[in-house]
Amino acid sequence: MKYFAGSFPKIQPVKFRIPTSEALIPIRLDIEIDGNRFKDSFTWNPTEPDSEVVLFAKRTVKDLKLPPAFITQISQSIQSQLNEFRSLEGQEMFTSEKIVTLKLDLRVNNTIIRDQFLWDMNNFESDPEEFARTFCKDLDIKDPEVGPAVAVAIREQLYEIATQNVTSARETRVSKKGRRGEYVSASKVGGAAVDLMKLFGGKSSVLRKRKEWDLYEPIVDLLSKEEVEALDAREERHARMKKRFSDMDDVYLTNYSSG
């Protein structure tokens, strides 16, 4: 969607920042070496010294009894994601869409969670971890791993929206050379923005207000052991196929460049 001069108030860019009280970076790992696979997701404080990355990798490999080769792969993957975040620091971004819709669609062990809710992108005191704790308490979810997974999923979406807003600001600076006053909305994750003031009568909150906002009904399913095993097997097959195609692409590119 595009707005032209005179049809939308002028928006001033701000410095890049994830709209949460703590700037924790969502990290996702999916590494396979010699038939051994390691998957995990968690948050990382970007102010921690880089030396902690290697120490974390070593502790993880030791605790899970993984082959030593995983230390390098885990370290490199975490460092790469941290470097990507740090490359955005200091850049400008737009925050025009105040309220966005975030979605959950994930499986943690034998628990499947599907939900969607509103989030205030201009609330820099929001706390995904507190939201996740409230979410699990409200829905009586017992698995202690669900809460952290929900928080990571929220942070991933907020990070993606913020990154897209940096891209929007960058593209706007370029477009101003040819078209003054044009603004391009880059939010793809949240969809159309809405005015939370109209929904809650001025009492906006990052947390779900179930009594006032019951448009979306969260879904929580518990799978049987057989269903979990079937899903795990399907995911493993998908991962192997994805890796096989990736290896084939690498071979093709190598042969093409050498030819």
Characterization of the model:
The protein has six helices and nine strands. It has a three-stranded antiparallel β-sheet with strand order 6-7-9, covered by helices on one side. Strands 1-8 form a two-stranded antiparallel ribbon. Strand 3 (25-33) and strand 4 form a beta hairpin. Helix 1 runs antiparallel to helix 2 (69-86). The longest helix is centred in the last third of the chain and has 34 residues, at 225-258. The chain is globular, with a radius of gyration of 21 Å. The protein has helices at residues 51-64, 69-86, 128-138, 146-175, 196-200, 225-258; strands at residues 2-3, 14-15, 25-33, 36-44, 92-93, 99-108, 111-120, 183-184, 219-222. 43% of the residues lie in helices and 19% in strands. With 259 residues, it is an alpha+beta fold.
Summarize the SSE layout with pairings.
Blueprint: E1 2-3, E2 14-15, E3 25-33, E4 36-44, H1 51-64, H2 69-86, E5 92-93, E6 99-108, E7 111-120, H3 128-138, H4 146-175, E8 183-184, H5 196-200, E9 219-222, H6 225-258
Helix pairs in contact: 1-2, 3-4
Report the principal-axis shape: globular
Instruction: Determine the strand fraction and express it as a percent band.
Output: 15-25%
Largest sheet: 3 strands, antiparallel
Number of helices: 6
Gyration radius over CA: 21 Å
Helix content: 40-55%
Strand order of the largest sheet: 6-7-9
Give the N-to-C terminal Cα separation: 44 Å
SSE series: EEEEHHEEEHHEHEH
The class by helix and strand makeup works out as: alpha+beta
Poorly predicted runs: 1-8, 180-205, 209-213
Mean pLDDT across all residues, rounded?
A: 81
The tally of beta strands, per DSSP, is 9
